[in-house]
Amino acid sequence: MNRSGAIAMGLRRVPVWMVYCLGMVPAFWGLWLGLTGGLGAEPVRALEQHLGETALQFLIAVLAITPLRRAGVNLVRFRRALGVLSFVYVCLHLGVWLLDLRSWPLIWADLVKRPYITVGMAAGLLLVPLALTSNDRAVRRLGPARWRRLHRLTYPAVSLGGVHYLMLVKGWPAAPILYMAVIITLLSFRIRLLRVRFPA
Ligand code: HEM
């Protein structure tokens, strides 16, 4: 058996629940660092950033599934788990922000006065219908074609997530630019694929 065959065989043996368990490790790691004073001078902000960045990484992983399949690495079985994990991290990220402010007027002011928060919220809201329909019953009820159309919301959601990150940093740090470059590359691959499947 060649190397890619061995990898494919190995991946087939990985149970999906293991992806959920491993996917929660960054959350517990963040919590552990928070409880042991390992998050620096602004622990709440650091936790918020850690959870936001992890959410974005999972969303990007979802987007990478199709190009990887084309390259011979089939991770389609794990797509739903990765999507659900990204939603869980967005909820935790949002939860830390809400707990940090703990006042509706402050939350409202942040939401309307800070464009990066508005953009983040828009990305988060787009993920809600995706999370609610990430189950077999929803696929059956909507039918595969409508379900697939609905799940194209992943593309604006991940783009807004990347823009949200770019907007909140000052100057031109490498990380958000790199995330955005990866998002644009993966999206252009998806758009090319959609054009091939549904030519104008
Ligand atoms: C649901 C509404 C959201 C709110 C209210 C929100 C709010 C915030 C806040 C307050 C920060 C920290 C800013 C600082 O450094 O002081 C942040 C950072 C961040 N958020 Fe969000 N966000 C939301 C949604 C999202 C979504 C949907 C994603 C990605 C899919 C995301 C990804 C990030 C990233 C990557 C960072 C920066 C992490 C870093 O600095 O390493 N956020 N967000």
TrEMBL record:
The keyword Kinase does not apply. It is a multi-pass membrane protein. Residues 56-160 form the Ferric oxidoreductase domain. GO terms for biological process: protein repair. Its cofactor is heme b; FMN. It is found in: Cell membrane; Membrane. One of its GO terms (molecular function) is electron transfer activity. GO terms for cellular component: plasma membrane. Binds 1 heme b (iron(II)-protoporphyrin IX) group per subunit. Binds 1 FMN per subunit. Its main location: membrane. The keyword Acyltransferase does not apply. Heterodimer of a catalytic subunit (MsrP) and a heme-binding subunit (MsrQ). PANTHER family: PROTEIN-METHIONINE-SULFOXIDE REDUCTASE HEME-BINDING SUBUNIT MSRQ. Belongs to the MsrQ family. This is Protein-methionine-sulfoxide reductase heme-binding subunit MsrQ. It comes from Rhodovulum imhoffii.
